[in-house]
Amino acid sequence: MKIKTNDKVIVTAGKDKGKKGKVIKVISEKNRVVVEGxxxxxxxxxxxxxxxxxxxxxxxxxxxxxxxxxxxxxxxKQTKVGYLVLENxxxxxxxxxxxxxxxxxxxx
Length: 108
Ligand SMILES: [Zn+2]
Description:
Helices cover 0% and strands 43% of the residues. The chain has no helices and 10 strands. The protein has strands at 8-11, 20-27, 32-35, 40-45, 55-60, 63-64, 68-71, 78-79, 81-85, 91-95. Residues 72, 74-75, 77, 79, 95, 97-98, 100 line the site of zinc ion.
C-alpha cells in the first residue's frame, strides 16, 4: 500500500472531494482507507432499554485508495508516491514532486 496510517491525504473524487484529513486506518486487502473527518455517516442506535433515548452517532466509512491522493509532508503538495530502494534493500517512499523521503519516521 502506498498510503500508510498518519499520512495526510486529500480526497480527489466523490462527495467529499477536496477534503483533507489524516489516515486513521488502512485496510490493505480491500485497498481502502479511513480518513479522519471524511466520509462519515450518521447512524441511529436504538434504545436498549425502555425509557432510554436512542442515539445518533457518526461512523467513519472507508474510501477507496484510488479516490485519494497523498499530500507530501515536505512540499505540502498533492503528489504521487514513488519508491526508492536503497543499497541495503530498504524501501523508502518518496514524493514524486520534490523527491523527498516521505516515510513516517518513528523515533524510538
Ligand atoms: Zn513533496
